[in-house]
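Support request, please re-run this one:
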Amino acid sequence: MPESSNTHPAASGGGPVRDGIPEHGRIPRYYAVKVELLGLIAELGEGAALPTERELGERFDVSRATIRQAVGELVLEGRLSRRQGSGTFVAGPKLVQPLALGSYTEGLRRAGIQPGRTLITLETVPAGAALGADLRIARDDRVVHIERVLLADDERVGLESTYLVADRFPGLLEVFDPADSLYACLRDRFGVRFEGADERVETVLATPREALLIGTNPALPMLLMHRVSWGPDERPFERVRSLFRGDRLSFSTRLTP
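Re-run finished. Output below.
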């Protein structure tokens, strides 16, 4: 039986944690501890070390298993971060990336964050059936494949895989610097104008390869974005698959009627 608490001062009064309280009013003990930990996190501040499981167990009068469950959820939510051999620390705020027809580079720079990339793959390959259908080309037509780890202030936060119709961008491999913005290169070198895109966002778990490249726990939820973009001629020219750490990034957009 999980530890539970019928009353808890931090969980009453319709505050920000009200949505976590079931209708019967009985709060799992780990959740009550999680609420207390949120207050402690606010007091400690970004980068501060969290007390040990033993110390927290004594402080809240619960078992270490209960502490472990509460801390684990806060790690998954990006409120805390674990450093192997060092302990658990208060994480910084999530990076906010706008959902817009713009590049990753431009979005982070507007937020005062230094973007970066590490090249993994740069090649030309046949499109295949599924990619060819998305880009409206034959399966044997060639596409340029660019795969890069995405950085924010030198922290690995995602993995981006872009496929471009090779015939529309002759010589791209020779002129593109993988450390720079791809969209800037397409705009400046090839005169590309983005007219629109279809984008889909879902939550997934990273594959072992992806987790290794991003440097994250395979059990950590990830945000996966699929995008197909086109220009004024309405012909698709790129498909992008972007995988982002759910504990470090969030996305925003403005909706208007």
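Residues 4-90 form a domain with the Arc Repressor Mutant, subunit A fold (CATH 1.10.10.10). The chain has a mean pLDDT of 83.
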